[in-house]
Amino acid sequence: MLPEQISASLYNRQSTFAYQAMFVSSCVHRTALADMHLKHQRQTLPIAAYRQHIVQTLEDNQVLVLSGETGCGKSTQLPAFIMEDQLSRGKACKIICTEPRRISAISLAQRVSAEMGEPAGAVGTNSSLIGYSIRLESNIAKSTRLAFVTNGIALRMLEGGSGQGGGAAIDEVTHLIVDEVSKVHRWLFHISQCIGPRKARKCNN
Ligand SMILES: Nc1ncnc2c1ncn2[C@@H]1O[C@H](COP(=O)(O)OP(=O)(O)OP(=O)(O)O)[C@@H](O)[C@H]1O
Ligand SMILES: [Mg+2]
Question: In the prediction, which pLDDT does 204 show?
């Protein structure tokens, strides 16, 4: 068979309903397998055993310091645990997780989105719960419940402006996670100064 005949025959086959149905079902099957694999991976991470303890500790306390081996699931699972718990109980949920590096903010957002079973490319759109914001690039939508942001962006959000209710964006945040906290001492000092007045405002209300 000539190459042109092969490609014409392939084209004809791809146009049939049977071929397209087979293609769609194999994609769906592959997605379901990938979802199951990610779910299994999540369940076998060391942090998984502490899920209930973490959620309960946060329910009873304003601050939690989490320490664990590298790769145990701090950056991906802690934000996910909080989000899943809040949403499952119908509670307000707007989590900000700060990252020292732009690449971490992007890759964590994509990873957590995939672990939530969202389709590829959903991050930052209205069909996703996950977003990220780095300098010159904001991928946060109305539906975003968990945003990974660089430390600089977080500081700007905390200092003022851009809140949808007219106030500072921090006023809408329910949980602030400072990832890689041991690497950002000076930044933490600025953050605590921004959060201080907010706590006072809350106490006065
Ligand atoms: N982008 C990714 N692609 C593939 N696997 C990933 C990705 N991000 C995380 N993982 C997997 O998820 C697990 C948990 O990662 P996570 O980043 O939450 O760990 P961590 O406790 O924050 O580690 P570290 O202390 O190094 O920051 C890792 O062991 C890795 O197997
Ligand atoms: Mg981490």
Answer: 40
Whole-number mean pLDDT of the chain? Answer: 84
37-72 residues labelled b (16+ CB within 10 A) or e (exposed)? eeeeebeebebeebbeebbeebeeeeeeebeeeeeb
Domain boundaries, the chain: 3-204
Q: Read off the pLDDT of residues 80-118 as tens digits, 9 standing for 90 and up.
A: 999 999 999 999 999 999 999 999 999 999 999 999 999
Residue 18 DSSP SS3: helix
Residue among 75, 177, 179 to mutate when testing ligand 1 (max atoms within 8 A of CB)? 75
Which CATH code, of 2.60.40.150, 3.30.450.20, 3.40.50.300, 3.30.70.270, is assigned to 3-204? 3.40.50.300
pLDDT band at 22, cuts 50/70/90?
low
| The pLDDT of residue 17 | 63
The verdict on the CB of residue 198 being under 6 Å from ligand 1 is: no
CA of 194 to the centre of ligand 2 (A): 24
The helix or strand, by DSSP H or E, that contains position 138, with its residue range, turns out to be strand 137-139
Segment 11-15 long-range contacts (CB within 8 Å, at least 24 positions apart): none
From the CB of 107, is ligand 1 less than 6 Å away? yes
Contact 45, 77 (CB under 8 A): yes
Strand partners, 138: 133
